[in-house]
Amino acid sequence: MSISQTGHAEIDEQHKILDAMVAQLDMLCDESRHTANPNCSNCSREHMLQCRATLNKTVTDLTSFLSGHATYEERMMELLPDTPSCQAHIRAHKAAHDGLARQLEKLAGDARTGTPLEASKQVWRIMEIWLGDHTKLFDQRLVSMSQSDSPEISLDNELVEMLDRHVFPNRPTMQRTAKTGGLQQARNDARRRYESLSPAQRNVFWLVVGGRKNAEIAASLSISVNTVKTHRAAIFQKMEVASVLELVKKTDLLR
After folding, report:
1. CA torsion sign, 242 to 195 to 171 to 96?
2. Half-sphere exposure of 73 (CA within 13 A, CB side)
3. pLDDT tens digits, 193-234
4. Alpha-carbon gap, residue 194 to 188, rounded angstroms
5. Between 62 and 28, whose confidence is greater?
């Protein structure tokens, strides 16, 4: 998925983390790696329930993410001058946020009742709109209409908590205004280490965190067990862990 950049550090960081969240859906369907036309009916009930639980969590996280993202941008909109052009943009931008929220609300129901594979495709379609058309039409324009590249926003405690919990743990403007604590530093380190992984290593990473054995990972990704072992060793080295348990704990810092 190609992400349109806005040039605004906070918004672009939100988009990057959103993209990383959705990328985990690549690991949802094992059958899609081996079949041109995968079908959920070919999977066991246990596997279906597992996929559905993963989707439900993803949709819930995305809904919370949108809430924090929209709140930040709408606070940013308050900085725009009171001109017809700016006010028209504000109305359209807020309506677009509402539209995404309604789509995610509908998707939450579909994820609970429909097939996981079809619901995951709907998630991808919404994310393509969010990170593509929505960003080009609204987020980029919002940044260009602002009086500076990084407008100062008065972040009250409630908004700060929402951004930290649902959007991303390391807001760029916070780096300029406050010292990060121990937990914040650990999150930053975990994020930096994860981003150093190659795409192939990330594929193995999420399967290892999910408790898959080397042979299962090899079969799922259509690679050899030796290749899995090589990726696994590199992951442990880059993430600076010595066991799967340590890797899982470090992964919690990415969420």
Report:
1. negative
2. 33
3. 888 889 899 999 989 988 888 898 999 889 999 999 999 999
4. 10
5. 62
Alpha-carbon span 242 to 33, nearest angstrom: 30
Residues in CB range of 23: below 8 A, 6 or more apart: 1, 202
Q: What 8-state DSSP symbol labels residue 194?
A: H
**Measured distance CA(16)–CA(40) in Å, rounded:** 30
**DSSP H or E segment with residue 157:** helix 157-162
C-alpha to C-alpha distance for 188 and 172, rounded to whole angstroms: 11
Q: Which three-class secondary structure state does DSSP give residue 78? A: coil
pTM of the predicted model as reported, rounded to 2 decimal places: 0.56
**What is the number of alpha carbons within 13 Å of residue 179 lying toward its C-beta?**
2
Q: What is the pLDDT of residues 36-62, one digit of tens each?
A: 566 677 777 777 777 778 788 788 878
* Position 6 confidence tier, pLDDT thresholds 50, 70, 90: confident
What are residue 104's phi and psi, to 5 degrees? -70, -35
| Tokens read off for 52 | 């559905």
Q: Which two tokens stand for residue 15?
A: 């988009």
Q: What are phi and psi of 67, to 5 degrees?
A: -60, -45
Q: How many CB atoms lie within 10 A of CB 234?
A: 17
Longest dimension (CA), the chain: 63
